[in-house]
Amino acid sequence: MTERIPLRYTVALLGFSDFEHSALASFFRLAEARTPAYEETGSLDTADFVVVNADHAPTVAAVRDAGRLRDAVLIGAQVPPDAAARLQRPIAPTHIVRELDALLEQRLAHLDVNGGPPDWVASEPGLLGTADTSRQGKDVLVVDDSRVALRFMQVRLQRRGYRVHVAHTPEEALERLGAQPFTMVFLDVALGPRASMDGLALCQRIKQGRLPAGHDVPKVVMVTGLSSSSDRVRGELAGCDVYLAKPLMEEDLDGALRALDPSSATAA
Q1: Is 202 exposed, middle or buried (0-12, 13-18, 19+ CB in 10 A)?
Q2: Of the candidates 139, 214, 137, which has an alpha carbon nearest to the alpha carbon of residue 182?
Q3: DSSP one-letter string for 15-66
Q4: What is the pLDDT of residue 192?
Q5: Domain 8-111 coded CATH 3.40.50.2300
Q6: pTM over 0.85
Q7: Residue 231, CA atoms < 13 Å, CB-side half-sphere
């Protein structure tokens, strides 16, 4: 099964001072190890995405003339109103990755529709909604309403030796939890406007232990864009074992796996 979407994307850093460019380039060298991965390129024409100094007018004009504002994260005080994503200084590299992830999800959103190929997020040889039974790792469940997010989390965990099952809705998650035991469950807080419950309520249901006899209560990892201190408290009150904020970096995921499943957590 050929992967339907790439895991690596190129980013051009344009209009920054030598100091800012060097700092951003160093960060993106680290970001090459995550999924999805972002690596720097010097070419606006071939870059998948662009990070732009919004306060350097000639660069902003060049990006607009190239028709690339829809693919750009602009940083600074003079962000044009038609920019796809904007950030203020001081520059926070993880915030840039968060915005790039959001732009990527928007770009791939046309794949995330009913009636599309059921396996476009598949990672060879498993299909979305199933696990690769040839793997000998522990079974984990990932719950997210975005098939793009599911795809990237699936790849991350498979690379670490897990057999990954996925669910789009709370009902699918509870059905899978009733059918077999899982070592861990990875939940987003927001599960879509039509979901019967959010990830916090689903976490509470899981931790209440309403599972078939012989099924241990799994560890629950929240993976969400909600990252305030109050959000984290709500996660703790819901019973989650680890609360991870997006954009998810590899070292944070590895730290969670070492804490919850040290015998199986491996480096990517």
Answers
A1: buried
A2: 139
A3: S--HHHHHHHHHHHHHHTTSSSEEEEES-TTT-SEEEEETT-HHHHHHHHHT
A4: 86
A5: yes
A6: no
A7: 16
pLDDT value of residue 148: 83
Report which DSSP code applies to 217. P
Place of tokens 């044009």: 80
Quote the CA–CA distance of 97 and 35 in Å, as a whole number. Answer: 11
Amino acid 204: pLDDT: 95
Instruction: Give the whole-angstrom CA distance, residue 32 versus residue 268.
Output: 12
Q: Which residue has the tokens 């796996």?
A: 257
Taking CA atoms, 173 is separated from 4, 158, 180, in Å, by 24, 19, 11
| Range list for CATH 3.40.50.2300 in the chain | 8-111, 139-260
Query: Do the Cβ atoms of 119 and 128 come closer than 8 Å?
Result: yes
User: Are the C-beta atoms of 82 and 69 separated by less than 8 Å?
Assistant: yes
**Annotation: CATH topology of 139-260:** Rossmann fold (3.40.50)
Q: Which residues, at least 6 apart from 54, have a Cβ–Cβ distance to it below 8 Å?
A: 60, 74, 75, 76, 77, 78, 79, 80, 83, 86
Mean pLDDT split into 10-residue runs, the chain, 268 residues:
70 96 92 89 94 96 95 94 92 92 84 45 40 68 89 92 93 93 95 91 90 86 92 95 92 94 64
**Torsion angle defined by CA atoms of residues 230, 231, 233 and 238, in that order, rounded to the nearest 10 degrees:** 150
